[in-house]
Design goal:
Layout: H1 4-19, E1 25-29, E2 33-44, E3 57-66, E4 78-86, E5 91-100, E6 106-110, E7 115-117, H2 123-136
Antiparallel strand pairs: 1-2, 2-3, 3-4, 4-5, 5-6, 5-7
């Protein structure tokens, strides 16, 4: 019994450590990248912005996993971006963007952002739809 308990504890810790990675849901895909959102990482940012009282602002972490090799990224490398969606006006800002190698080492990081329009039939439109729908149902 004493030998089994440490093994069980290690398995439990391992399962808990990976649990955060299990709640990502694919929202869009392309030939080169899959895009994911996690409902646990979507928040209503409207109260932080009093000037936005007329519309909803959703903040969400968007994860993208590269499926092919390119000049700078390899298959399995991934990005994590904090995106702020102004839902009814269909704009977004990438607040923070981080690129990682597939073994989770930081490749690059950026905190510079500007407002962009959500373009129809794009991966960003799919992400905006999921994040804004999630906030509207809360």
């Amino acid at each position: 019994m004493r030998k089994i308990l440490p093994i069980f504890c290690l398995l439990l810790i391992s399962a808990t450590a990976n649990a955060d990675d299990d709640d990502w849901e694919m929202v869009a895909t392309s030939d080169t990248v899959d895009f994911y959102l996690s409902p646990n990482r979507i928040s209503n940012a409207s109260p932080s912005f009093p000037e936005s009282a007329k519309y909803t602002i959703a903040e969400a972490w968007v994860k993208n996993i590269h499926k092919t090799n390119s000049k700078t990224l390899k298959r399995g490398d991934f990005g994590m971006s904090l995106v702020r969606f102004s839902c009814p006006v269909r704009t977004y800002e990438v607040i923070s963007e981080n690129l990682y190698s597939k073994n989770k080492k930081l490749i690059s990081s950026s905190n510079e952002y500007s407002t962009d329009i959500v373009i129809p039939n794009t991966t960003m439109e799919a992400a905006a739809r999921v994040a804004c729908d999630f906030i509207s149902q809360q």
